Structure formats: C-alpha cells, structure tokens
Amino acid sequence: MSKKIITTPNAPAPIGPYNQAVLINGTLYTSGQIPIDPKTGKLVQDSIEAETKQVMENMKAVLAAADMTFENVVKTSIFISDMHNFSKINDVYSEYFDDATAPARETVEVANLPKFVNVEISMIAIEGA
C-alpha cells in the first residue's frame, strides 16, 4: 500500500496542512475545492454559477493531475451556505457528469465555509471506474 500525493498548479494550492488529493490503492480522495482562481489566487464570487464553475474546474485539474476525469468519480460531497442555491449549483454541476453514470452524492447546507464562500466540493474517484 503506497500513498501518492497529488498536486497541480492548475488548482489552488493548499492553505493548511493538507494536500489537493491523495491516491492510495487506485482510489483518489480529493480535498474540498472552493472557487479560487489558481491563476490569480483570487476568489470568484460573481454569481453562484460562476463560483460552482470555478470549483468544478479546480476539481477537473486535480483529477487530471491523477490521470483521471469526472468519469472516474464515484462519490461527491457538496457543501453549500444556502440551500436556496441548490438548483443553480446543480445546473452547473450537471454539465460535468452524464446522468446515467453520475456518482453518488450528498449536498449539505453548512453555517460557513472557508473564506466564507458559498460552495465547496470534494470527490472520491477510482482508477478504471
């Protein structure tokens, strides 16, 4: 059993004692991504749709760094600051997955998220899935 740390400059750098993702025995565990533009280091907060798109693009970069795509994702966790944004977040999220093979998922409303953003998403992906 070997643990491989996954990092990419195409997603925001960790701001604490964690990594963007860890690959172990063919399973990738990603850290939560928030809407930070990795090129500028600034938060994307134009709209909930723009925030969600940035989060998904960050996640796409992390998956790519592990030679995976959204097709490999088997589980997603979505944390949102306001459940009233669920349908808007879901609309953007759905652009990245095929309904027939979409992963298992939970969406949870929370009191606050890092940097007081409105959405954070983490994923579990499997090689060859």
Automatic annotation (TrEMBL):
Domain of life the protein comes from: Bacteria
EC numbers on record: 3.5.99.10
One GO location term (cellular component): cytosol
Protein name: 2-iminobutanoate/2-iminopropanoate deaminase
Keyword Hydrolase attributed: yes
One GO molecular-function entry: 2-iminobutanoate/2-iminopropanoate deaminase
Keyword Hydrolase attributed: yes
Key words, A-Z: Hydrolase
Species, as recorded: Kordia antarctica
Family: Belongs to the RutC family.
